[in-house]
Write a structure and sequence with these properties.
It is built from nine helices and no strands. By secondary structure, the chain is mainly α.
Length: 214
């Protein structure tokens, strides 16, 4: 007969892997946040992909929601964009954006959110400042670029090296967004740890509380 402690842990693990109404609400909030960050619009410099604040929201989604809910929030946003809603910077929307120069960067938001979440919440541990910074730099910049630049090169017929060179204009702004995202996440860890209820606090509580046995 299984022990009560083993049954409780199995039940908690099952709950953590089930998407709840609260999870869906948080997914919607972060999708809306990324859309709102596009309201100021963007500008293009030395390339066909606009510079916007929306990647800041992508960084926060992965760092706060974790890998899978963060990716789900970006998937929801892009699905709404594909349906025609003008949720990207400059009021862009519609299926056409997914065959344009920025298509790879948009898809990179999903992959980037996964990588950010995996690094920030590695092993279910409490997010730290340096792991958060590493996560948003790798997932929010390197991964997004790794997906976006080849697609932009293919669409614009510009050599890959030249496309990568023009993308350097994004780097200072993206590094600034990564630092800001790290500050926001570090503040949430101290002031509102429940924001991470899917990744860190449940594990911490389970480890801290004694498990009853028979």
């Amino acid at each position: 007969m299984p022990e009560a402690g083993s049954t409780q842990m199995t039940r908690e693990q099952s709950t953590r892997h089930r998407i709840t109404a609260t999870d869906l609400a948080r997914v919607a909030v972060f999708a809306a946040l990324v859309a709102a960050l596009g309201l100021p619009g963007g500008f293009t410099a030395f390339g066909a992909v606009p510079i916007t604040a929306q990647t800041f929201g992508v960084m926060l989604a992965g760092a706060v929601l974790g890998p899978w809910l963060g990716a789900l929030s970006m998937t929801v946003l892009l699905a709404l964009v594909a349906a025609g809603l003008p949720l990207l910077a400059g009021g862009r929307g519609g299926i056409g954006v997914f065959v344009g120069p920025s298509a790879g960067f948009l898809l990179g938001w999903i992959v980037g959110a996964v990588v950010i979440g995996l690094i920030v919440h590695a092993g279910g541990r409490k997010p730290t400042r340096w792991r958060t910074l590493l996560g948003v730099l790798v997932g929010g910049i390197l991964v997004v670029y790794a997906v976006g630049i080849p697609v932009q090169s293919a669409v614009t017929h510009l050599p890959l090296g030249a496309t990568a060179l023009t993308s350097l204009v994004f780097v200072p702004g993206d590094v600034t967004k990564a630092v800001l995202a790290t500050v926001v996440v570090s503040t949430l860890v101290r002031a509102y740890p429940r924001a991470f209820h899917r990744t860190w606090p449940p594990v911490a509580r389970r480890d801290a509380e004694p498990v009853p046995t028979r």
